[in-house]
């Protein structure tokens, strides 16, 4: 029939958006936050982050969230509240996330019955605030004096393992544990059936100089890359080569706001859209990414280093003990490589050593490699 | 966004701007609209604008979107503007910019921050009643009430007596008639559409009918909508105080209790419990599969329960009389076991269903929504042969198509005939033509009639 029929043209395509899991890694390094306190106190940042979490939860009905604190002496979950391992902790709650704190009747914290607040928001908020308070109370002076940096590597691994678990639990056939095991064994084959959960990681970072965790962080980045989990970076202070590479390798957003006070607006505009929405939006990225690596021996960011021909470990110096690779133990005669260097390299290297890497040839070279977080004792 | 919230969205869209303004004063309503009604991309736009201190220039908005997704952006903006969420502004330099409607923005902010003193997310009752009811009780209560309604619709056609269930109230009956689900003691085609949907969609279509009916009952639509959206944000198993409700909302309590959407211990109780039907009002299919699915047919049918084989045999793991009744509308059921019925889809059974006014799409949708988890492993859930055959059986009965309209004939010349045919085609009213006999058929006379008049006047002049 060639008649024009207006009534049939209003069929709408039901584009189902997969629920998205947002794992937030919050850098709670006390030194760095003390340094930021004049522009953006930690309390304000946390309040902004809570609004952002609520906005994320509101953006999709299946959306869930996990918050991990990367502190100076440990990394731990702020939400969901971890409980000592118990066999029946796999019940999922209203938000569809793996409840590490069991079911809702767990009263480790009390949610006030506030008629002005949406209950799921209130639950998340109370849990985060109480766990955060616990974390801060547990921080001793000795912990602070021990290190000026933060354990981002551990926090990233926690986030990744949580996402992996949530993805399995969220898959359509959850009841069958045998299949879940199969999925672990063979992630490639079963990928099609497990795309149901779109996960991403957001790192809110304030500390500089993470080069001492180069290896664990790099491993996490590769794991995320393989699992197609974008890592978004919000860099409020300091700068690290490592996190730039993380967002670049995994296709995440990288942002270093000029004015950290406007944290909420940055979060809402750049970090809230989930992978589905990002397909139609132009997202900010790192631009020129600094691809320099950190050496395995002294954890320094190097422009040019020596690479083990067997395991690809990177060293900043040719003076290896017994000429053996520190990682795999193979024999390396790096000295021979050094004795006959290409003409250009030594000059560049000298320059870098003198000025602390401020004028390197790599893009994004304005980032000081060794920008240590200042100590606030 | 699930299919079920489309109906609510359709309803919301056609409300006048004043009603929208009134609605947006309630944070729980705004949050529910944001969560369930808006397309995915629109949510991103709203959130980006929410804490923006200045209006967002239209050029920046265009720059934010990739070139290839302008179409989706336009769709999202269209809905936002239709719901009066976003306002277009033009500044002195004639630059277009967008901002959120102020009361929508402030309500959404309040909802996200949990600030303000609007008490719109339900006031929990603090009285420790000794007769608190359990979640299980609420589930069975809402299930019973809702199944009664469905059974009232279906039972008569299939010839089942409602075993154990009581009759539904007269208010519900008149509402079902008003909604066009039930007429002259028989279920209508819309009624079948209603019955074959998933529970959430059923609840919404009944509530939309309720809303349309509201002005006649002297009830305020705004109050009803606010209350419904608030119900969606409540917690199951908690009792809430009725003290903050308006007169309309108190009136609603009774009706909703009859639908099984809320529970009250007695008619003048000072508290009410939302049931699972209520708390899933503003959530998606995702929450439905765990929740409201169980409301339709007992524990065994909590998820999907129907297995369809490529040889057209159907196995349904259910003992719910309602589900069996619905199945028997379009299948030839043969055996019944304590937890299982089995049967076959035949040409005859589908033909009978189509004679009732059920379409093949509805049958397929029903089987699809209730497919057993084992079936859900494959995509599509149902065997393609079965789906195609059901459709073919429907087309078999549709060899003839009737359309009402007007036959134009007795044209004096070939030229004027051609001209009129072209004119009818251009205006989209053309249906059929026969060049030999110089006649054609149109489904509306207005435009062509006007042209004839004009031409006659011209020839006369």
From TrEMBL, chain A:
Cell compartment(s), UniProt: Nucleus
One term of GO molecular function: zinc ion binding
Gene3D superfamilies, per the entry: von Willebrand factor, type A domain
GO CC entries: transcription factor TFIIH core complex; transcription factor TFIIH holo complex
Biased composition (Polar residues): 103-114, 359-377
Recorded superkingdom: Eukaryota
Keyword field: DNA damage, DNA repair, Metal-binding, Nucleus, Transcription, Transcription regulation, Zinc, Zinc-finger
Name of protein: General transcription and DNA repair factor IIH subunit TFB4
Keyword DNA repair: yes
Source organism of this protein record: Karstenula rhodostoma CBS 690.94
UniProtKB/TrEMBL annotation, chain B:
Subcellular location: Nucleus
Any one annotated GO CC term: transcription factor TFIIH holo complex
Superkingdom: Eukaryota
Protein name as annotated: RNA polymerase II transcription factor B subunit 2
Matching InterPro entries: Tfb2_C (IPR040662), TFIIH_p52/Tfb2 (IPR004598)
PANTHER family named among the record's database cross-references: GENERAL TRANSCRIPTION FACTOR IIH SUBUNIT 4, TFIIH, POLYPEPTIDE 4
Molecular function, one GO term: ATPase activator activity
